[in-house]
Sequence to fold (535 residues):
Amino acid sequence: MKKFIIIIAALCCSLSASAWSRHIHSGIAAIAHDNLTDEAKKSITELLDGKSIVYYAQHIYDYADNEAYKHTKVWRNIAFTDKNKILKAKKAAKHEHKAISSALAYEGLVSSLTALQSGKLTKEQTRDNMLCVITILSDLHCPTHYVFTDNLEKRKSYYHYNDKKYSYMGYWESNSIRGTFNWKTNEFVHQLSRKTPEQIAQITEGSVTDWITGNAPLYRSVYDLLDTGTRFDGKSLRLWQNKIYPISTEQVAVAGYRIAAVLNSLFDSNAPQVKIK
Amino acid sequence: MKRTILSLLLTVIATGTLWAWGGQGHSTVAYIAEKHLTPRAKANIESYLNGRSIVYYAAWMDFNRTDPPMDVTRDWHVDYWTDDMRTDANGNPAPPCSVSQIKRIVSEMGDFRTLSDSLVTINIKYLTHLVGDMHCPVHIDFPTSRPMKVKEGKTTIKVHKMWDGRVLDSKHNGLSPQQMAIELDRYSATEIAAFQSGTPDDWHNECLEYSKRAIDMIPANNQVSYETYFNKVIDIAENRITLAGYRLAAILNSIFDK
Fold:
């Protein structure tokens, strides 16, 4: 265990994780906020001293170097086996490839959720763990946060446009939406928070672990949407983007609904309970 | 010469670089329209869009313009100078244009419930886009069409490119389409009703006048600065976008509020 912690601590100093960009994190949090029950919203607002979760959408990134959040630097990505199973933390942490050894988001999420469900936290601890859940669950609906152990080369995929080279991972962080829609936070809500109760029930069915493993096959296929080294012109770039934005916008919506379901479960005793596993 | 200009225009259209209003303008049109849909029309429309808003699809025709199955729609984004729109700037038979397609779709959608879901869905996407396009002053193929440019410092900018988003961005940079719609959608119910009256042909004739104005502001030698031109046309751009929104709502309400 001590060795495991040392490995994590070492990684904390060297990571440069990719993530949804700030505007997408805010959009997801806004969709979640829009789907909170009144009771959950009230409790959360009290916890955040009057602010909403949108304000804190990527708080753990903004304060990643603070003592309170340093340990969360390895809680960005999640590693999967070739069978789309979550790679166990101990196995992942010992892996020689940094992309895998630093992909401990699932452990972070489980740890924060378990702490929150215990009901034994101080206000500050509750707040910190809740903010971890919001950001991590948000990121776990971004395909490039899924590291497939049998497919690591594809994480280096790139394309050319206007004689410049761009990373595919980087594209997903922001331009997977911004390349098509110039949305501000309120527009994420207007455009994406419009599912029917039946659709929401389907999206939030099962446990948090079910959601994450359920995402894996789709996210694996996302890596196949780019032949690395492709040279795009304006036309071909647009047609390629047409394949991506329907996926990214849908995943952003799904993330928002699921975060709302978790928070409602934690802060509204009348809301359906969401299990971790 | 005219043929060359028309060929150039059509070539540029075919390559997808001419996007009237850009995504920002088209989304603003759709936001304004959405706000003026009746609840029943809105619900009917969204049932064909899998719950999504018309705004989501406002620029869909541009995004998919170069997709081979969309070749048939290539010329739909522009209109023609002639009143009957049966001929182009050179007197040749005109291909289908925005107005003719809007009229065709409105007629086809008379009893939308008898049509296949996929046809209704794509017709909604077409209408949402084309009503915006037909209100864009530089989307009319004039007999006097010429490569219009404005000066900005030592460089020149194609006028069409300005209208593809730059005009709006210059004044409203930082505003999202939804925010811009809030700023522009400020007319009274009486004024809106007046804007919505008439037919697509009437609206086209009105668009012609605005197009002439926008074009007449460019001297033959293109010696006008971007700033001077921008200050003259920004009101036209905002007016065209706002009216397009109201008229799109009128068309969609007439089809789907039943």
Notes: DSSP finds eleven helices and four strands in chain B. Chain B has a mean pLDDT of 86. The beta strands of chain B are 79-80, 140-141, 149-152, 155-158. The CA atoms of residues 162 and 168 of chain B lie 9 Å apart.
